[in-house]
Structure formats: C-alpha cells, structure tokens
Specification:
Blueprint (H helix, E strand, L loop, with lengths): L11 E9 L10 H4 L3 E9 L8 E5 L5 E9 L12 H15 L2
Antiparallel strand pairs: 1-2, 1-4, 2-3, 3-4
C-alpha cells in the first residue's frame, strides 16, 4: 500500500457484501438480528487498484469472481472459541472422573 492509501491490483484483500437488507430479512428471527443487514465477507485477489471503502472485484483462491466493498488488505485468519470458562474445566474433570475414576 502506498502513501496515498491506494491498494494495488493483485493484493490479497477482504470484501464485504450485503446479501439481504434488514427490511428483507425473515420475521422469524430475533428483533436485534432483524434490525441488521445480512452480510458476507470474502477474501481474494484485488483486480484493480482501489481504496478502502470502494466497490471492487476480486478473484478468490477457488478462482471465483466476486464484487463488494473493500474493507481490509492482507486479512488474517482469526478463529476463536470465546473466552475461557472455568465451568468447562470443572465439567471436564467431572466427566474424566466418571469415566476413569480418581
């Protein structure tokens, strides 16, 4: 990325696309969920120079073409299972004790 915040063609990026506007979502979901658009994020290789916030085209690693709003350059993989819960350790110890004894 250069000083003028242009992300160059070929950069690995993440785009965001609205699949359903809030008004298009089903009534069978919680109110908080109904109030927000249904979005998807896709990673791929930028097909033109662009800036964050612009509409762009990408090619994914599976060679699929997609378009959306550019939101991130060089996105990382962040996967988590939430915060540590002491109760889960207690449950694990109880299960092990029941299975294998003390």
């Amino acid at each position: 990325m250069s000083q003028d915040n242009i992300i160059t063609k070929g950069s690995y990026v993440r785009i965001e696309k609205v699949i359903l506007q809030a008004s298009e979502r089903t009534a069978k979901i919680p109110d908080e969920t109904k109030a927000t658009p249904f979005k998807m994020w896709t990673k791929g290789f930028l097909q033109e120079d662009a800036k964050i916030g612009e509409q762009v085209t990408i090619i994914t690693k599976s060679n699929r073409k997609d378009t959306g709003t550019l939101v991130e350059v060089n996105p990382s993989y962040t996967l988590g299972y939430g915060n540590y819960l002491p109760e889960m350790t207690e449950i694990d110890m109880i299960i092990k004790e029941e299975r294998y004894g003390k």
